Amino acid sequence: MGHRVNTGIGFVFVLTTFLLLWRWEQLSLNEGSRCLSQEKCAPGASQYVILLSYARSGSSLTGGIIAEHPDVFMYFEPLHNLAKMFGPQQDEYEKMTNRHLYLTRIATYNQLASPVIEKLLTCDYRNLSRMFSMSRSAYDFASTKELYNCVNISKTPEEETECLRLGQERCRQKPVRLIKTIRLSVDQAGIFLNSHPCAKLIFLIKDPRGSHQSKTKLFEVFGYSAANIQRFCWRLDTDLSAATKLREQYPDRVYITRFEDLAMKPLLASKRIYDFIGLEFTEKVSKFVYDKTHAKKDTSGYFNSRVNAYQASYRWRKAITLEAVRAYDNFCQKSFSELGYLPVRSTRELRNLSVPLLSGGAAVS
Ligand SMILES: *[C@@H]1O[C@H](CO)[C@@H](O)[C@H](O)[C@H]1NC(C)=O
Ligand SMILES: *[C@@H]1O[C@H](CO)[C@@H](O)[C@H](O)[C@H]1NC(C)=O
Ligand SMILES: *[C@@H]1O[C@H](CO)[C@@H](O)[C@H](O)[C@H]1NC(C)=O
């Protein structure tokens, strides 16, 4: 079984590489790669949206808001199981160097992830490995739950093939396909945008100082050396500069946004995301956004409801150490200044929620 899966992935990988190279060659023959951006998305064609973010950055909520539209088919964290396969390699690296190894820095991982993104967004489920049809997070969302269950109870390869065919059909019924992932680099998403004129990227960032505190609380084990913060900032700088370049190339296909804007003005920020994708912001969606961000009671877990989303988005300021904040302010300086995350000068300023940490941001009242 494992062998078959590997050969399958290897084959798909070789094939994809071949196709990419072939395509690249074709484009190079056509007066350089400039012609890429001139390829237009045909009206009525299916749309592909990659929502790319980091852990604990509000991407589940954001993905959920987009998926609330009936035209959207969402695949939630399809790379979860693939990522787990690299766990031992990451642990080993961490043991040896005391530094975290991000998946997106592992070439083999990127090579395996890329064709999966392609297959899922284009609703090509033929021979889709169980690693992806049975992603644990896929089970949590309506679009993909049926596929998960069907494959889970299938007893023969024929039954499984039938499940994949049905899943593929479901996917094709929806004009907008969305992948929400924290396990991809912007560069990888860029490869997809280059070859699909109807593909869009939403790069969602939350103040990393807040994500830090959230991860510390949730996972406890996350190592917070300055070296790891430096690593994170390197990843952010790389992704942000790649996203900025990509946006210059495809102004209406790349959207860089901060979670704090969504938390501060949920309806306005959600509507902007809908406008970017080209979806109608309906009354029903509007109510969904309102309920998620103005709940009667906070819920915890991956898909939170908040009494006051903006207040909640700054709860971390009460708990994080000034030392950790300073490490971020120092190593992430370049990205922070581009994104408008303001540095903190003292513990007093950190704990005083009347002092905004976001340019254009309101004090938390
Ligand atoms: C799916 O796998 C079967 C058996 O390994 C193979 O014959 C077929 O060509 C594959 N189809 C695609 C689309 O990859
Ligand atoms: C998958 O199927 C098994 C039985 O074949 C069942 O026990 C299990 O709960 C199923 N998994 C999920 C997530 O439904
Ligand atoms: C908190 O910050 C506000 C705005 O800068 C300031 O007016 C207020 O005095 C500060 N409160 C404390 C306790 O430092």
TrEMBL record:
Coiled coil: none annotated. SUPFAM superfamilies: P-loop containing nucleoside triphosphate hydrolases. One of its GO terms (biological process) is N-acetylglucosamine metabolic process. The chain crosses the membrane at residues 7-24. GO terms for molecular function: N-acetylglucosamine 6-O-sulfotransferase activity. Keywords: Membrane, Transmembrane, Transmembrane helix. InterPro entries: Gal/GlcNAc/GalNAc_ST (IPR051135), P-loop_NTPase (IPR027417). This is Sulfotransferase. It comes from Elysia crispata (lettuce slug).
